[in-house]
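Structure tokens please, single chain.
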Amino acid sequence: MKKQLIKGLLLFLCMLYIPAAFSQKHYRPEISIGAKFGTNLSNTTFVPKVKESLLLGYMGGLSFRYIEEKYFGFILEANFSQQGWKENFETEPYSYTRRMNYVEIPFMSHIFFGKKAVRVFFNIGPQVGFFVSDSYKSNFDITAPPPDIELSRSVEQYTLPITRKVDYGIDGGAGLEIRAGRNSFMLEGRYYFGLGDFFNNRKKDYFATSSNKNILIALSYMFRIK
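Here you go.
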């Protein structure tokens, strides 16, 4: 399934870049730099399944945008992002969250439509992330969980270390841009689907899949330098 998603993304990007490469250049290129800050709502894909709810985190970083053609360009970012998961114990009086910090680098096609002052845009492309650190909060001893927890759910995830420290996946989203001279303000919603695992997934390991997912809502400021 993950290999099919990667192939589909590469084919989609090729379809975007080929028309731009052969089109006539009647558009003045733009180069912009900027910063962004936002909120992550994250969880994970576990196999076997773990009962979860969304974990609130924050992200911020720097952006570079190059627009070569009318309606088309690309965006490169370097972001610090908080991700992880929050377990759902339903009516049980327990809590557990695990937060993972990453430095992420998305490289996305940037497609936009609209007038000079207001644009609607779509971004899609691959992303790679580098694990920095993690932490957890719990109201029980994770090395010796209460018997009712062990009987009702997986507990291996509480003590497993993050062994795979390079994350990768597909990023995509849409938003609105307000332009005033050289200044741009962008509100964007984005979804990240991780294709890599952060725990080992060998046959002898407990989890076959342990990948990140998150929804990002962010506000960016961009300044056009050319």
